[in-house]
Amino acid sequence: MSNVAVVGFAQAPNVRNTQGTTNGVEMLVPTLAEAFEQTGLSKSDIGFWCSGSSDYLAGRAFSFISAVDAIGAFPPINESHVEMDAAWALYEAWVKILTGEVDTALVYGFGKSSAGTLRRVLSLQLDPYVAGPLWPDSISIAGLQARLGLESGRWTEEAMAEVAARSLADATTNDRAQRSGDAEVAELLANPVVADPLRAHDIAPVTDGASVVVLAAEERAREIVDRPAVITGFEHRIDSPSLGSRDLTDSPSTRAAAAAAGIDGVELAELHAPFTHQELILREALGLDSGVRVNPSGGALAANPMFAAGLTRIGEAAKQIIDGTAGKVLAHATSGPALQQNLVTVLEGIR
Question: What are the alphabetically sorted keywords of the record (predicted)?
Fold first, then answer.
């Protein structure tokens, strides 16, 4: 069974609002073109296509079918879709290559988060019997999670602000980031709360965006790039959907996925943490010490395109391998309320 590697990554500019449609075609066409130019591949070279998006976000059924227009569905293609972040579409594509059925795959995710009121749209992922009818929005749920951590002594508001300051500073070198800049912790803490105890810097921005990752079997990958990012670990786990039946200040599913993926020795981690305190939860669950650089791209706090942000974490981590910056990296994606479901990918530069 051949290993699978990331050989290309591209993303659309992350912005607060695009003028395009909710099917993502306007964002995807130039992003796909960038991925093809980067890898030297064409549509006919891709053995399998898989996407991640959400009809709830688009506001219409089977919206991903319209997104196929960005690819061109004729001649017929081998295509699939997941109704969640495209990091899970990449998992499907990884399995597809492992079976030996194809030796290349292209994964894309997109979301026009500005099309509705995102924090209310995300309420639809709650259980429909207990939490759903109360319509708690995603930011309020995260606020409850942050408050639990503060009251239990798991973290402080200063630690949360330090995450924001570092992420925004790192994002200044990312030309696709939606927000970036230098700020002092004291300055951030002087800002008013949005959903107690969360301030604006603690919350990922509402983002329209898309990203593309190209995969190849290892032998094929070495024909495409000099240093492919080989996937050496890939696992995802899920916690209870019931907010009251789990400890919201911890992430057992992240810990379990990391243990199965084998993260020892990682030098860098791209974590999908839409809230500052969630990065603190993830770092503890993963056992990352101060020697591991976290989110050099700025992470989700710099840009959080729904259903593409997790895939972007994998792409950003893979870039560090492909350009020779790191030898072993970790990428993480999350889905569901309060870090309910978590995916961990380990990538290495193997010559």
Answer: Transferase
Host H or E run for residue 39: helix 25-39
Does 46 lie in the same domain as 90? yes
In a domain, 143, yes or no: yes
147: CATH: 3.40.47.10
Side-chain half-sphere CA neighbours of 258 within 13 A: 23
Give the range of the structural domain holding residue 77, as residue numbers without chain letter: 4-118+206-229
Cis amide linkage into residue 133, ω under 30° from 0:
no
Structure tokens at 13: 């500019």
Q: What is the pLDDT along the chain (351 residues), one digit of tens a residue?
A: 679 999 999 999 999 998 888 888 899 999 999 999 999 999 999 999 999 999 888 887 888 888 888 888 788 889 999 999 999 999 999 999 999 999 999 999 999 999 889 999 999 999 999 999 999 999 999 999 999 999 999 999 999 999 999 999 999 999 999 999 999 999 999 999 999 999 999 999 999 999 999 999 999 999 999 999 999 999 999 999 999 999 999 999 999 999 999 999 999 999 999 999 999 999 999 999 999 999 999 999 999 999 999 999 999 999 999 999 999 999 999 999 999 999 999 999 976
Q: Which two tokens stand for residue 248?
A: 């919201």
Residues 152/247, Cβ–Cβ less than 8 Å: no
Please provide the size of the chain in residues.
Answer: 351
Please tell me the distance from the alpha carbon of residue 230 to that of residue 221, in angstroms, as a whole number. Answer: 9
Same domain for 212 and 316?
no
